[in-house]
Specification:
- The protein is an alpha/beta fold.
- It contains 14 helices and 8 strands.
- The radius of gyration is 21 Å and the shape is globular.
- The two termini are 35 Å apart.
Length: 312
């Protein structure tokens, strides 16, 4: 009887030592598809080096005008639809590593904040505008110019000034059809930004106490947050938004710890920092679309973060 109990105890200990099952779920960015080469390169590198399966989310791909679904679809439509897919994948694992590139990083943060009792251990945000987009890159301007009501105005001889273009992302018609406008956050027009429906809620700048508390608790549930970006970025304005920094109305850079998000601990950023849970990996010499499959980023930023999860 004693020997039997000892064997049971030993078997129980061995079971407890069994490695947790870990998976990686990767979301692409704006104007992209899940199977673009730099995402496939990411998947192949990670799986070869770590043995951890990478799931590339096949949803809201490429660029197509409404009513077709694509990366341009507003985020309050994308987030719940993608989260449904992600939950099915996550159910296969004890814990998952969330990876979001560019707009995909904003989508992932929104999923984490809205997902109670999630099993996301580590969130790797790659070149994502986590504090918002303060300016409009040229390729975004071109997309805005293709919106039907903008073309109609131009066909009627109406001139859209540069100042008008800076306000255009706040227009409800744009918010409802053009995803990047959902995280547009020009510091000069902050009060107008607060009237939009997606990003102010995500950042707990507006909303009811219950929802704010839920989002903050879910974000604080992360064990690690890895922020990847760099100063030669040409798409995210300012590039410091990738590090949860931002820019003031008078064009001064605001580091993460000086932002309202951090100082007021709106959604748990300060909490994670106080737990030493935030890693910043800054790489120069890289343009926006270089980040997902840069060997420097993969070896110096991504691989250590994955190994940290596996060693835990």
């Amino acid at each position: 009887m004693v020997i039997y109990l000892i064997l049971i105890a030993l078997l129980g200990s061995a079971a407890g030592l069994e490695a947790e099952k870990v998976g990686i779920v990767h979301m692409h960015g704006f104007w992209q598809a899940y199977d673009e080469q730099h995402h496939l390169d990411f998947k192949n590198f990670v799986e070869e080096k770590t043995g951890v399966k990478v799931h590339l989310i096949d949803a809201f791909n490429d660029l197509a005008m409404p009513p077709a679904e694509s990366s341009i679809t507003p985020l309050n439509v994308q987030v719940p639809a993608i989260l449904k897919m992600v939950k099915n994948i996550a159910a296969q694992y004890d814990k998952i590593i969330a990876v979001g590139f560019s707009q995909g990083g904003v989508i992932w943060r929104a999923m984490i904040e809205s997902w109670d009792n999630h099993n996301v251990d580590t969130f790797i945000s790659i070149a994502a505008p986590q504090s918002g987009q303060a300016g409009i890159p040229p390729k975004y301007l071109a997309s805005l110019g293709n919106l039907p009501f903008v073309k109609m105005a131009q066909s009627q001889g109406k001139t859209i000034s540069e100042a008008d273009m800076k306000l255009l992302p706040y227009d409800p018609r744009v918010q409802q059809v053009f995803a990047p406008s959902n995280y547009y956050r020009n510091p000069v027009t902050y009060q107008l930004y607060l009237t939009t429906d997606f990003f102010p809620k995500l950042n707990n700048e507006v909303g009811n106490k219950k929802e704010k508390r839920k989002q903050k608790n879910n974000f604080e549930r992360l064990r690690k947050l890895v922020l990847i970006g760099g100063p030669d970025e040409e798409t995210i304005v300012p590039w410091q938004s990738e590090m949860f920094g931002f820019i003031s109305a008078d064009q001064n850079i605001i580091p993460m710890k000086k932002t309202k998000f951090y100082k007021k601990n709106l959604f748990g950023l300060k909490t994670l920092d106080k737990k030493n849970a935030i890693t910043k990996c800054i790489k120069g010499g890289l343009k926006h679309n270089d980040f997902p499959n840069s060997s420097e980023v993969l070896n110096d930023c991504v691989l250590p973060a994955i190994q940290d999860v596996l060693s835990g």
